[in-house]
Amino acid sequence: MKQIPGGVTAPKGFRAWGVHCGVKSKKADKKDLALILSDQECAAAAVYTMNRVKAAPLYVTMEHLEDGTAWGVAANSGNANACCPMSHEYAEEMARLAARATGRAPADFVVASTGVIGQTLNIAAIRAGMPEAAAGLTAGPEGSDAAARAIMTTDTVKKELALACSIGGRTVTLGAIAKGSGMIHPNMGTMLCFVTTDCAITREMLSEALREVVPRTFNRVTVDGDTSTNDMCAVLANGMAGNPLIEWKDDGYTVFLKALRQLCQELARAIAGDGEGASRLITCAVREARSEESAERLAKAVVGSPLVKAAMFGADANWGRVLCAMGYSKAPFRPEYVDISFSSAVGAVAVCRGGMGLDFDEEAARSILSQDEVVIDVHLHEGEHEATCWGCDLTYEYVKINGDYRT
To answer: Does this UniProt record's set of keywords contain Membrane (predicted)?
Structure first.
């Protein structure tokens, strides 16, 4: 497995671009319309938010992917196209505009939106910008870069990655762009992720791989406990790598699954680390649990706790908040067996053993908790299962961002 440049344009046969059309802002440097297109028809699969309130683009995409195929993605930022007049009509119009600009059919496109909920989408801006997005489509890294920036909302950095692996003696590439910073909680967060690959794989196996990976990556991220209306992770596979077609769970599937999981895990970590107002990434690893499900529930409770997040912001080794969060997670464990330690790039400190506090150097702990990534290690001593979840600290800036997000 090797990381390579290029994002969604790294796999063979994919082009992308992003432009400013005026959905998000009048500032010309703020891209807000992205387009991704394959040179060949793709096997396609997607997963969506579990929020009962879903934005119109999700329903349109569900309909378009009923046959398990797609050619591209059309996405805008700056407006969620959710819970507003003409939302479904405008989501369908986005697909028609993308089709008209590329010579494809409307049903060939995944459609996605992200931004403010409840405001009518400026479809006129998208209508004006789509031809420019199509004209700019390029297979170079600059295409992926432009598309990645066009889907950003409160993100402070673009989220883009590509990996290469070998399947059946052929080089297979996976690329992705993602966005996500706030309104993020397990069961997807305010995130969009578009994965492209030149792997030859059936739509059934592609869907199986995506549904196996997402629960262990994107669904293990929490920023603020809110699950959005617009979350989507879609994968397009055009088969142009020329590897033997993956039709069942053979060795090729195992390699592809590992690559997809690594890709999504790195993007999940990037989303957590770029949480709104965040100053550090929090990783919680729960080990030696009775089951993976209970380990995941415990880790999610820890990274989702406002008090743990606030303690991490203050570099305060308040391990009692970790144990407390575990206690209300509803996962089975024995508190008297629990060991807790904090670690980062500068060292580690044990703070709890057997459910009881340990003496430790407060200044050393503060230094450890002041790094860009802090790991909370929890050992339960009850089994052989483990799970890792990701979150971020809770800062003053988070409140500032969300206090006037709409206005």
So the answer is: no
